[in-house]
Amino acid sequence: MVKQIDLDVATIVSQNFELKVGELSQTTEVTSEASVVETATMSVGQVINSKTVQEIPLNGRHFVDLGLLIPGSVTPPQNGFLTAPLRGQGSFAFNTAGNREDTVNFMINGINLNDMVQNQITFQPSINTVQEFKVDNSTYSAEYGRNSGAIVNIATRSGSNSWHGEAFEFLRNEALDAKNFFDDSTKPTPPFKRNQFGAALGGPIWKDRTFFFFSYEGLRQRQGLTVNTIVPTSKDRTNAVDPTVVKLLQLVPAANAVPDSTGLLTRFIGSGTAPVNIDQWTIDVSHNIGQNDRMHGYYAFQRDLRQEPTLQGDNIPGFGDTRQSRRQILTVNETHLFTAILANEARLGFNRIHITFTPNAQLNPADFGINNGITTAIGLPQIVIGRAPLLNFAGPAGFPQGRGDTTAVFSDTLTWVHGRHSWKFGSEVRRFYNNNFNFDTGQFNFPTIGDFINAQANQFQITLGSRPSRILINAFGFFGQDSFKVTPRVTLELGLRYDWNGAPTEALNRFVVYTASTNSLVQVGSGIGQPYKTSDKNVEPRVGFAWDPFGNGKTSVRGGFAIQTDQPVANLVGGLSSNPPLAQPLLFTSGAKLFTTFATAQTDAAAAGLAPSSVDPNFNSPYVQEWNLNVEREITPSIGIMVGYFGSKGTHLRISRNINQKLPNGTRPVSNLSASSPIKPSAALGNIFEVDSASNSSYHALWATANKRLSHGLQFNASYTYSKSIDYNSLSSQGGVGGVVVQDSNNIRGDRGVSDFDVRHRFVINPLYELPFKGNRWVEGWQLSTITQLQGGNPVNLIVASNAFTGLATVRPDLLGAIQNIGDPAFWFNNSVCNEAQSDPKKTDFCAPGQFVFGVPQSSGPNAHLGNLGRNVVVGPGFINTDFSALKTTRITESMRIQFRAEIFDLFNHPNLGQPGLQGFSQITSTRFPKGDSCSSRQVQFALKLIF
């Protein structure tokens, strides 16, 4: 007798059976439901089935959010994302199993869907096209390489001999939404209109041979943004005499709220609009060539446009940027069955993104009297005032820019079942193209509004030049994996993978690096052949076991060990095309000269020295060692539980350092380039930003899950994670000048602390229940589902604003007294040694209720030292969220149904607070993801679907 066989995407199921001649009416049914106990592999992960994908409440319909349903995954804080959730487009990555978010490998039908510039997903396929997907996030097969984090395998929907399809619209607007926690209760709710609509159709092209599935989905969103910021008072405007400041003030709206002690208005409260348009088309075609061959093709194309008035930090209307992109993926798979025990699958495909970023205010700096080296109307330099900041406008810095990236992939996998062995052998070749252009208008920093009125900036940074580049990266890998049935109860898995990651090349050798050994700037092709060494020693063993102790398939003990390597991403060398003579990176920071002005900025920055970017010539590919031991048990035929220990150690992780950091006496280790430097001999040097592979990480966790397959109308997935993640830095590329976030570049171990995405406790449950009402079409077809997430807080790294210590504003303060978590948004934590005598309401650094003072480390003199406060010692707010969905499906005819859905996100309107300001004295001023689609306030959505 054959028991039920469950097949999932990228899973192995072992089942021996004998076929006998039976009656013509007998059938064999193969379903795609997940087994509740895994007894065949060491890989740990979870299948998200089609019902879950299509029917649970997903805010924004973003399938990547499903990755947060599995154990080990966490929601990072708003400052912990490589790219924070985008308005209308959701998150592009997630953290899981202690790995950085840019280590997740997304695949559609076996083809990479990662943008290799930052290794985040290129775009989110419509969930209407997702049949199911599996997330493997610990000790997966040697078949998978390229990344050390999770493997997300997406299987797309295909057509069949029967015609099927749907048309739908999802609708939201502000009339049904709750106000954001930080919105003014006396003001109207900011306008919000969101329409998601689309259609899908599948069926036969040639009966029993060729099938298709087509889909379209569109988004039109208009979101009003409340702007509430400090601006110059009328007295400040009267005091302004600098002609550039006078002209710039015409771009800043007048204060209209919150009088100060003199009765002058100090704040501007207004609004801006952030539109998002997305259109996505997909086509899936499968063809049975014969009994032994099947061809499958999938193509998706998306175009999108977003206008972001505040995303780059601007906090008054009229600025920000516009982003337009085109995104594509093509996958072609051919499966050939040689014999009943020998099969081959060949895969060919590419994914591509073309995106541009353009300032909304394309003004000419020269018209304002700004001497930043730009004399065309591409935008003003960004102006940042205060530490919170108080006022941020113009720019954005680093724009306009754009890029076109293409990743081409060919892979082949041979599967051979021989006796007790199930062998897999395969290889993969990848080729990545990255074309860029970058302009920069620079950025001015002013400590206070008074300094801005007086035109006295303490920092100015710019990289002059257009900086085009055409980058090419090649990589290949091959593997062998054996799943050996030692006994009917014990399976041993042995695998070995090798990956070769080539160093990037530039079409015209437009890479310039700083070589410390000769104190020179050297262009690739003139003395050096490549920016860093080829990564050719990536040997990755995978070893594990699965033991069925009772031989009945109801209990499984599994363990495994794996080494997994990351292919370095393209932005590792992104700054090398910005070095002289290709461009001119300049940075002025206050020192002997206390400030610069709009009229002298370029001259002062040039005198302060070059600020080149470089890469360690011995840069190594990062790798992670993972291990686990877990036990699974079937409670009922539809319910299974798992509990296990999971750990990992990351080595050679990417980190940025300032290798010319200021000394305590204020000088630099290297003040000038060598007189023999091929480029800019004897030129003055400032900061030198180098990307190294010197960071590491560790992770230890308890994972527990309970899963129920759909039966009696109920299914659910629940998971609990207790974990601790430690590292030196938590993102491969982070914000800040040169991407440097460590306090002391000469002692990166001093930044060892819990990861930015560290969470001690996380619990997730998502039940789905089909109500048992029967009788007629009006009472049957009801379904309820929820997603509830409870998560502890993420850590906060506190820094002082001064850049006088190391040349970068990454220095932490001295701790004068114990830090207490108060838990009030206006006063999240407190330093008990707060000197009220220092309070001055006219300054930004005072000690009023909800604020505190840290000691200031000494930058020079006999007591010179950096701050003694550790990294990430304060814990920010936790995260509690429940999303709810109720749907009613009504039969119109035997083959046609209509479905109405009502969905409520953040059902209980729990205020999920953002992080305390890094330099804003413990105040919280926004919700967790104010610019994303979730976690801001209660939101209501209605939907209507026609299904046939």
- The overall number of domains is 1
How would you sum up the major sheet?
22 strands, antiparallel, barrel
The number of helices is 5
CATH evolutionary superfamily: TonB-dependent receptor, beta-barrel domain
Report the end-to-end length measured between terminal Cα atoms.
36 Å
Structural class: mainly beta
The chain-level mean pLDDT equals 86
Instruction: Please give the CATH class.
Output: Mainly Beta
What shape does the CA trace take?
globular
How much beta, percentage-wise? over 45%
What's the alpha carbon Rg, rounded to whole Å? Answer: 29 Å
CATH architecture: Beta Barrel
Helix content: under 10%
- Number of strand elements: 46
Low-confidence stretches: 1-7, 17-30, 832-853
In the CATH hierarchy, the third-tier topology is known as Maltoporin, Chain A
Describe this structure in words.
By secondary structure, the protein is mainly beta. The chain has a single domain, classed as Beta Barrel (Maltoporin, Chain A). The strands form 8 sheets. It has a 22-stranded antiparallel beta barrel. The chain is globular and about 80 Å long.
Outline of the structure:
This protein is mainly beta and 948 residues long. Helix content is 3%, strand content 45%.
Features:
disordered N terminus; globular; 5 helices; mainly beta; 46 strands; Maltoporin, Chain A; five-stranded mixed sheet; 948 residues; 22-stranded antiparallel barrel
